[in-house]
Amino acid sequence: MTEVVVRPRLESDLPALLSILRRSHATHGYPRRSEVVRADWLATPTELVGLVAEHAGRVVGHVALHPAAHGPDDDPGELQAAHRWSAATGVRVEDLAVVSRLVTDGTVRGAGRALMDAAGRSAARSALSPVLLVDPAADARAFYRRLGWQEIGTARQRWGENEVDAVLMVVGRP
Ligand SMILES: CC(C)(COP(=O)(O)OP(=O)(O)OC[C@H]1O[C@@H](n2cnc3c(N)ncnc32)[C@H](O)[C@@H]1OP(=O)(O)O)[C@@H](O)C(=O)NCCC(=O)NCCS
């Protein structure tokens, strides 16, 4: 069986990733807002890392790590989330990395898990602790739980016109 390989994202991956993001918006409602279905939303200037999953030479998914404070949205809700993650993990806000922009095309089993594992390893190499937030209505919530993540509360985020009590998650707590 061909393996899923995770590697750094290249500029040339963006058209394929945008197609995946369009499909995800249409079928999973992620992202919620159609106006952010854009390559520059996936690959933000403030990101720490951008990774893609490849299978049989084809790009099948994406994940990024963002700083916990002063990320792409720079919203007060983001800071609140950062402080809650910090309180739950005992890790300083500046030592957190937010696993973000996770999306797969759904054609290759294990791609999401491979991306999450690679994001975790990438954070660890920089001595950062991975955290994430998820739309309360997203089916990805169950995916993260399956991978061992735990919900530690919520923080209200402003996503365009919407205010959403995003679910905050951390990994590997006893
Ligand atoms: C969530 C998502 C990234 C999962 O990716 P994927 O490639 O389908 O996941 P994998 O095949 O690696 O699945 C890993 C495990 O999680 C399970 N799983 C996958 N999706 C799941 C879901 N929605 N609910 C519960 N479990 C799920 C799989 O069965 C598998 O379990 P196993 O290995 O123990 O058999 C993908 O469905 C997606 O892109 N969704 C839309 C975008 C999105 O919501 N992103 C998250 C934003 S916060």
TrEMBL record:
N-acetyltransferase domain spans which residues? 4-174
Q: Which UniProt keywords apply?
A: Acyltransferase, Transferase
InterPro entries registered for this protein in UniProt: Acyl_CoA_acyltransferase (IPR016181), Bact_Acetyltransf (IPR050832), GNAT_dom (IPR000182)
Query: Does the keyword Acyltransferase feature in the UniProt annotation?
Result: yes
User: What GO annotations for molecular function exist for this entry?
Assistant: acyltransferase activity, transferring groups other than amino-acyl groups
Name of the molecule in the record: Acetyltransferase (GNAT) domain-containing protein
Q: Which organism is it from?
A: Klenkia soli
Per the UniProt record, the lineage of the source organism begins with: Bacteria, Bacillati, Actinomycetota, Actinomycetes, Geodermatophilales
